[in-house]
Design a protein that fits this description.
Layout (H helix, E strand, L loop, with lengths): L3 H9 L3 H7 L1 E5 L1 H8 L5 E7 H6 L6 E3 L1 H7 L8 E6 L12 E5 L5 H13 L4 E5 L8 H7 L7 E5 L1 H10 L4 E10 L9 E5 L16 E4 L13 H13 L1
Parallel strand pairs: 2-3, 5-6, 5-9, 6-7, 8-9, 8-10
Antiparallel strand pairs: 1-4, 2-4
Helix pairs in contact: 1-5, 6-7, 6-9
Length: 243
C-alpha cells in the first residue's frame, strides 16, 4: 500500500529543486507511461487507480485511490496512471548525426516539448539545450514531447562554447533570424546544427558570432506579425531543411 510519504515525494516532483534533489521525474497518461516502460529509462514506481486498472490491466502497477492519484498528479484531471522514473546521468554531447537541433533560451515548456517532438518527426535524433532553457524533466515539457523525450538524445551545454567548438571543427551552424537567407530558396541539403532562439529575444548576442548560415522564413507581404512562435518557426525550418 502506498504511504503518505511516497505520495508527498511524488507530489514534490512538480518542482525542479526536488526533481534535482531526488533524481526523479514523473510521467502521466497511458501513452506516455507505455513509452517510458518501453524505453531505456529506469522506472522506479508505477501507480494506477482502480478504474484505470479495470479498463487496462497492469500487473506491475500499485493500485491507488482517486484521491491519492489527485494528490500525486500535476494535472487538473489525472488520467489515472502515473509512473516515476530516474533522471539519467548527464553525458558529454558528441554529435553523431548529420543534423542537430540547438535550443537557445527556450522558456516555454510547451514550445520545448513540441520542438523535441518535431525534431524526432523529421529524423533529428540529437538536441542540445542552453543552460537557461526550461528543464527537460518539467512535467509540461514531458507531456508536450508525447514520448519523444525517451528516444531523442537531449543534452544541456554552454551553448556559445559548444557552437564555437563545432564551428571550429568545420560544422555549419544555421540560425533562425529575421534577417538571413530565404529558407525557401535553399537548394542544398544542409548538414550541421540548427539554432532556434527564445520566444522573446530570439538568438542571444553571445550566440550570434557562432552562426555561419543565418536563415529566415519569409513573411508574406502586408503581414503585421513581427515574429513566429519558436516551436512553429522551428517546425517550418526543420521541415524545409530535412526534406
Amino acid at each position: 500500500m502506498i504511504t503518505k510519504n511516497t505520495i508527498k515525494q511524488i507530489a514534490s516532483l512538480r518542482q525542479q529543486k526536488f526533481r534535482k534533489q531526488l533524481g526523479l521525474f514523473a510521467v502521466e497518461g497511458r501513452k506516455m507511461v507505455d513509452e517510458l516502460l518501453q524505453s531505456r529509462f529506469e522506472t522506479v514506481g508505477l501507480y494506477a487507480t482502480e478504474a484505470f486498472v479495470a479498463a487496462h490491466p497492469l500487473a506491475a502497477a500499485e493500485t491507488v485511490s482517486d484521491v491519492q492519484m489527485q494528490q500525486m498528479s500535476s494535472l487538473d484531471t489525472p488520467p489515472g496512471i502515473l509512473a516515476v522514473a530516474k533522471i539519467p546521468e548527464p553525458t558529454p554531447f558528441h554529435p553523431h548525426s548529420r543534423f542537430t537541433l540547438a535550443l537557445d533560451g527556450i522558456a516555454n515548456p510547451g514550445n520545448m516539448g513540441t520542438l523535441v517532438r518535431t525534431a524526432e518527426w523529421f529524423g533529428i535524433s540529437e538536441v542540445v539545450c542552453s543552460t537557461d532553457c526550461v528543464e527537460i524533466w518539467n512535467p509540461k515539457v514531458i507531456q508536450a514531447t508525447m514520448g519523444s523525450v525517451f528516444r531523442v538524445s537531449i543534452s544541456v551545454a554552454d551553448l556559445p562554447a559548444f557552437l564555437g567548438e563545432q564551428r571550429e571543427r568545420g560544422k555549419a551552424v544555421y540560425g533562425a533570424l529575421l534577417e538571413g537567407r530565404n529558407l525557401f530558396e535553399m537548394r542544398e541539403k544542409p548538414d550541421g546544427i540548427l539554432v532556434i532562439g527564445s520566444e522573446s529575444h530570439g538568438i542571444r548576442a553571445e550566440v550570434l558570432p557562432c552562426i555561419t548560415h543565418p536563415v529566415t522564413i519569409p513573411r508574406a507581404g502586408g503581414s503585421a506579425t513581427e515574429s513566429l512562435n519558436a516551436a512553429v518557426a522551428g517546425g517550418i525550418i526543420m521541415a524545409e531543411m530535412t526534406r
